[in-house]
Fold these 2 entries.
Entry 1:
Amino acid sequence: MGLFSKTIRTLGPWGGYQLARQICRNQPRILMYHRFSNPPVKDWASPKYFEQQVRHIKENYNSYSLVGLMQYKREHGHMPRHAVVITVDDGYRDFYHYAYPILRKYQVPATLFVTTGFVDRKLWLWPDKITWLLNQVDRIPETIKIGAFCSGSGPVNFETRPFYWQQWITHSLSLPDPEKHSFIDQLASKLGKVFPLSIPHEFEPVTWGELLEMQDNEIEIGGHTVTHPSLGRVTESQAREEIFGCRDTLNERLGDRYRTFCYPNGQPSDFRAFLPGLVQEAGFLGAVTAFPDAYGTRDPLLMRRHVSGDDMFQFFKSVSGVELVGLRLRKDVRMSLSGVVASYAG
Ligand SMILES: [Zn+2]
């Protein structure tokens, strides 16, 4: 057991959180959420716990939108103390229904990263197509073979559905973008299903009107590409179209202003060395990954994020800095892409 873990055990969880909060006072923590629901759904955030978290942040930390944090740093030359940023990915409508009223109630800013083609209702977010497909069937009649991919037959129910979902998502993520879409279409045709033309209610995006309203009330609307590909599996010119196209649509629909950016999927394999430069060239003030490691927020174009949701233990680890301190003590670095590598001293 490391010294920090021993200290936390001695102090008890609350003492450990307080200690981490002090150690990390100059290191903002960026929290990551995706979907919200009531009643609760596994791995999503529900209003009951989200409200407890927002209240805790309001009472114990200084909260910023991500662009607000970057502007503070520009003005003062350093990050604010005890800063926490709430970020939410993708642009689902449930943010507007469940999270936004709570953020307004406590006057806590946040950043919502939106995929512009999704808000324009030109596309579904592709993982939702897999969820939808698996909800349409109660059995996979025969083994599905698509190229090297092979998925067994059998019943699709409460127990087996997550297994199929994970297998199909993992394979999709390994493919270049056009092949991924073709793979999902082939899955549908093997199951004899046709995707509805309009996005089903449970996968709906926010509207531009709702985004405008939220933008006027302390919610930054950040960029999350046009079609949500893994930017690690597209060419540089496609990445440019995704990043600049997203920026242009946001500026057209919501007005020209400083914003930040979020890399789709955001895992180490979704990155290429040219991406931070493109994001900067497009004028975004900062950008975030979807995983935490020892770098924290040292590189403004590759700031790490901490998971949050209904698990209050994970929330306290993320928000207090316990997770960040642990990663630093273990020198846990999951990705080294930019000049910050040289300056990272452990
Ligand atoms: Zn996303």
Entry 2:
Amino acid sequence: MVTLFEPLALRGVTLKNRIVVSPMCQYSSVDGFATDWHLVHLGSRAVGGAGLIISEAAAVSPEGRISPDDLGIWKDEHLHMLTRITAFLKSQGSVPGIQLAHAGRKASTYSPWKGEGHVPESEGGWQPVGPSALAFAPTYGTPHALDGPGLQKVIADFRAAAERALAAGFEVIELHAAHGYLLHEFLSPLSNHRTDEYGGTFENRIRLLLEVVAATREVWPAELPLIVRISVTDWTEGGWNADESVQLAAMLKVRGVDMIDCSTGGNVPKAPIPVGPGYQVQFAERIKQETGMLTGAVGLITTPAEAEAILTNGQADVVLLAREFLREPYFPLFAAHDLGVEMPWPVQYERAKPRAHVAAGPR
Ligand SMILES: Cc1cc2nc3c(=O)[nH]c(=O)nc-3n(C[C@H](O)[C@H](O)[C@H](O)COP(=O)(O)O)c2cc1C
């Protein structure tokens, strides 16, 4: 039995395999609208056989975009193209997921190929918001610290975005609480210097995330799964850490969250991250073992054998791949071949399917 190709039931949704397309910003939207690029990009990975495809960070408000070119889901007009995309992904047997996000103090930055750091208002940028008036780095804007009504708006924006995600046909929501974006900024004492009930103690720092989870669960149907992506550690003394992540995961488990997607870092420039093959898998393993929560492992997982080992060793329940999926949209089809699993190819591509005795070839 090859675990990578065992279906996984999450509430009322079944993934046909354990291979997940990790969210990846495409910086190819105008005013938040998905385009043909998104249809082809996500659609290709569905043709390639991924069990779950999680869209890039979709901003819940215009000021929650990382860049002016981010995908958005803050108005009903966004839904038309998103609905086309979810319909296509489903037609290929993939489950469509969406990552809901607010970039916080890392908002209003240039897309990677357009520049670096803060986009000024004269070029379509805006003033970012965050827990405290602390810039991420000198080239970033200094955020405006959110006040009570500002926080209520963030929560309401996530709730409304979840309603829209449902209307667009998504079947999984992933809340982005990682990589130094708004929800992570509240978790970490390095970015959260507040003295009110949203800062200071662990209970206060996790409050915003718990409120966003509750608001999302209010409108997200009980039969549909909810995932939260966290950065398990800031990799920095005095920052958010793995012990706190374990505690948080246990609390999310009883609040309707079905899986923790275990990433790390992003809240501290130049943190000493020991990047290497599967370098974050240990965190998915720890959270799974200590809380019983389902976990996703992500980060430099690039081969079918590595992916299979992570699952059979009980370190995680799914694997998420990002860059490998950019190199190889058909990763699941080839992984099945490599691992000796019979997996149907799209009928249109059937004639290219590698036969059992033929190596899959270079890719
Ligand atoms: C082009 C690109 C865009 C990304 N955008 C997002 C994003 O929108 N949301 C997110 O949580 N992570 C994002 N990431 C991080 C990936 O989801 C993933 O966690 C990371 O790349 C490590 O996995 P990998 O080694 O398989 O690439 C992005 C990564 C890449 C390469």
